[in-house]
Write a structure and sequence with these properties.
It is a single chain. The protein has 9 helices and 12 strands. The protein is α/β, with parallel strands linked by helices. It has an 8-stranded mixed beta sheet with strand order 3-6-2-1-9-11-12-10, with helices on both faces. Strands 5-4-7-8 form a 4-stranded mixed beta sheet. Strand 4 and strand 5 form a beta hairpin. Helix 2 packs across helix 4 and helix 7 runs parallel beside helix 8. The longest helix is centred in the N-terminal third of the chain and has 26 residues. The radius of gyration is 17 Å and the shape is globular.
């Protein structure tokens, strides 16, 4: 970390927090459990969470991940911003109940894009809150875009920006599977979990998804971004948030089933 303070970055995937097929449908029991598991972290935390069914369904319906198509998108963008904040409140409540002191940092107030790429990101508030002993929480959101008007900023993009700024000891991605596989295990029953993955391994992986890709990009694109993140973190791993205590063990630095992501150094 830039200030020499140990930090763990955690991305809670939208597929773990919500039923991604049903609009604004949270997995409340899972959210509460994950909050408790995060409270056992051995270092300061910064938490990023996906939008799940609070963001992707409406964003896809109104094509918010594409170019600006008209004024109807402004209303849709406002609705998505409102909805992802509602999910964020559930995450904050879970962290509060677990004994952490979370503070919400919406990307729409901190980040600007230009044609879908990050143009400006204010990382200092995250550090300021961590130093105070608070737990910053941010999330996938609709943000300003200098070219398109509005754009989607995914939780994975936020993880990369935060990793670049703070060089965490660990970057943990909480998914709804046990890690990265040779193919989507929801589609191919014989898919094999990879203990580790690096850029040179990607050509051998079948990235065909079991369902329609979300508005934040393909699975392959997400993994490539994880590899970028791994170049800035001491350790980067993917764990299954649906298995009790996997996240707890990961934030404590214990051995855990999952996939280690190896970055280019």
């Amino acid at each position: 970390m830039s200030a020499g303070r140990p930090m763990i970055l955690v991305k809670l995937g939208g597929s773990v927090l919500t039923d991604k097929a049903r609009l604004r449908t949270p997995r409340r029991t899972t959210i509460v459990r994950l909050g408790k598991e995060l409270a056992g972290a051995s270092e300061s935390l910064v938490v990023v969470h996906g939008a799940g069914s609070y963001g992707h369904i409406l964003a896809r319906r109104h094509r918010l991940h594409e170019r600006f198509l008209g004024k109807d998108q402004l209303l849709a963008g406002a609705r998505v911003q409102r909805d992802v904040k509602a999910l964020d409140m559930l995450v904050l409540d879970a962290l509060l109940k677990a004994g952490l002191a979370p503070v919400s940092l919406p990307p729409s107030a901190l980040l600007t894009m230009d044609d879908g790429r990050v143009a400006d990101f204010a990382s200092k508030p995250f550090l300021d809150y961590v130093v105070m002993g608070l737990t910053p929480v941010t999330f996938g959101d609709v943000v300003r875009d200098r070219t398109r008007g509005l754009a989607i900023c995914s939780g994975d993009v936020l993880m990369l920006e935060l990793a670049r700024a703070f060089h965490p000891t660990r970057a943990i991605f909480v998914a709804d599977v046990d890690g990265l596989y040779t193919a989507d295990p929801k589609r191919v029953r014989t898919a094999r979990r990879l203990e580790s993955v690096a850029a040179e391994d990607l050509d051998a992986i079948d990235f065909t998804p079991a369902s329609t890709a979300d508005v934040t990009g393909s699975i392959e694109g997400k993994v490539r971004r994880m590899i970028e993140i791994a170049a800035h973190a001491g350790e980067t791993l993917i764990v299954n948030g649906n298995v009790k205590n996997r996240l707890r063990d990961a934030v404590r630095g214990r051995p855990v089933a999952g996939t280690h992501v190896v970055g280019r150094r």
